[in-house]
């Protein structure tokens, strides 16, 4: 069995070793996603990315607790989509799914509510493809957050919303009643 460092090194060499999704899910590595048979390290996160991730996690969790809806909020938690092993930046798990999977090492589907925060090395096309993958794998709502342009795109099966500074951010299908000013999530203080 290879160590984590050896596995990552092999996947970044000219002829990367292919790992099965099941192997990865049974032996997950921190900050690593499984994409098309390769172990991919999540890189490119900035301080601003981390700040937005912390703020969003705080606001979702605060609403979840104050509203009595229950469930749990995660950062970088592993889930299995129909195609890959992913670690969304921020995710919410409903009380029903939490009861079922509380002790699992990964969620065998996409989280119901997911936020992905664009890093400087992320392409818009990659993030939209990831959102589509999440929606096809059980997610009900995906937020794509673009810190540089100050845009947040909310995607559900029924609609797509584009929001920016000065507007309120509300959930569409998950966490009913959640609302926060986008300035609270994106503004640098």
Describe the SSE topology.
Elements: H1 4-12, H2 21-26, E1 32-35, E2 38-41, H3 47-67, E3 72-75, E4 79-80, E5 85-86, E6 90-93, H4 95-101, E7 113-117, H5 124-136, E8 141-146, E9 151-155, E10 160-164, E11 168-170, E12 179-181, H6 182-186
Parallel strand pairs: 7-8
Antiparallel strand pairs: 1-2, 3-6, 4-5, 6-7, 8-9, 9-10, 11-12
Task: Please provide a brief summary of the model.
The chain is of the alpha+beta class and 189 residues long.
Describe the model.
The protein has 6 helices and 12 strands. The protein has 189 residues and is α+β, with helices and mostly antiparallel strands. The protein has 2 domains: 4-41, no CATH class; 47-186, tt1808, chain A, CATH 3.90.1570.10. It starts with a helix and ends with a helix. Mean pLDDT is 88; it is low at 1-15.
N-to-C span: 46 Å
Rg, rounded, reads: 17 Å
Question: What is the highest CATH level, the class of the largest domain?
Answer: Alpha Beta
Widest sheet: strand order?
3-6-7-8-9-10
Shape from CA axes?
Answer: globular
N-to-C series of helices and strands: HHEEHEEEEHEHEEEEEH
In DSSP terms, counting alpha (H) and pi (I) runs of 4 or more, how many helices? Answer: 6
Question: Could you state the CATH homologous superfamily of the largest domain?
Answer: tt1808, chain A
**How many separate structural domains?**
2
CATH architecture of the largest domain: Alpha-Beta Complex
What is the helix content? 25-40%
Predict the CATH topology of the largest domain. tt1808, chain A
């Amino acid at each position: 069995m290879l160590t984590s460092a050896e596995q990552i090194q092999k996947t970044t060499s000219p002829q990367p070793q292919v790992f099965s999704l099941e192997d990865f899910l049974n032996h997950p590595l921190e900050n690593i996603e499984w994409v098309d048979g390769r172990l991919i390290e999540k890189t490119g996160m900035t301080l601003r990315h981390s700040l937005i991730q912390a703020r969003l996690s705080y606001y979702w969790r605060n609403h979840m607790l104050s509203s009595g809806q229950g469930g749990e909020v995660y950062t970088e938690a592993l889930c299995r989509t129909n195609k890959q092993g992913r670690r969304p930046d921020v995710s919410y798990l409903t009380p029903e799914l939490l009861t079922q999977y509380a002790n699992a090492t990964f969620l065998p589907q996409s989280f119901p509510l997911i936020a992905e925060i664009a890093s400087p090395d992320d392409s818009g096309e990659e993030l939209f493809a990831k959102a589509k993958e999440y929606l096809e794998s059980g997610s009900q709502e995906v937020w794509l957050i673009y810190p540089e342009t100050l845009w947040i795109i909310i995607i559900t099966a029924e609609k797509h919303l584009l929001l920016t500074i000065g507007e309120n951010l509300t959930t569409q299908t998950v966490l009913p009643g959640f609302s926060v000013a986008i300035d609270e999530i994106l503004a640098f203080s």
